[in-house]
Amino acid sequence: MTAATRFASEADLLREEGPLLVFRLDEEAFAITVTAVHEILDVQPTTPVPNADLFAPGVINVRGVVVPVVDIRHRLMMEQATDPSRARIIVVEVVIDETTQKLAFAADTVEDVIEADITRVEKVPDLGAVWPQSYLRGAFRLKDELIILLNTETLFHPKAASQAAA
Q1: CA distances from residue 11 to 17, 63, 118, 121 in whole angstroms, order as listed
Q2: For 93-128, what is each residue's pLDDT tens digit?
Q3: What DSSP designation does 135 have?
Q4: Which of 31, 63, 110, 113 can pair with 20 through a Cys bridge, CB separation 3.0 to 4.6 Å?
Q5: Cβ neighbours around 127 below 10 Å, total
Q6: What pTM does this model have?
Q7: DSSP characters for 15-35?
Q8: 3-160 has CATH 2.40.50.180 classification
Q9: Distance CA 61, CA 68 (A)
Q10: How crowded is residue 60: how many other Cβ atoms within 10 Å of its Cβ?
Q11: What parts of the chain have a pLDDT lower than 50?
Q12: C-alpha 9, offset from chain centre
């Protein structure tokens, strides 16, 4: 990954944060920065792309723009959703190789936009964590719930899986 897609230090990370969007995959609460979110849509049909990587197996049309749909469940080593009745599509804008890209992913539910004290973000312990550490910025507590803060710079990077293994 290039320096352009990675924060230089933890201090830079904290300065970049703002409100967080909380969503769920299964019963787990995850968050990303609101600054990365372009819009939230109802679920719509995804057009499969022949021979596409499991990272982005299809595309959707977002206001006339073809947007890749990223399977973050696959990235986070989670099972596929079983109840799409409340699902939403979150469209994000992320910088990949110095170019801003729109990507979309499905969340079981979108819950809230919160202000959180991210100075209290702690590393997710390796023991017991089922998600690859390279996709996580850390975890924090909000009321009585643990929320996992995702690293959008690695989670949405197409080459992140091979780079994480290197």
Answers
A1: 10, 36, 11, 12
A2: 998 888 899 999 999 999 999 987 667 788 887 666
A3: G
A4: 31
A5: 5
A6: 0.81
A7: HH---EEEEEETTEEEEEEGG
A8: yes
A9: 9
A10: 18
A11: 1-16, 161-166
A12: 20
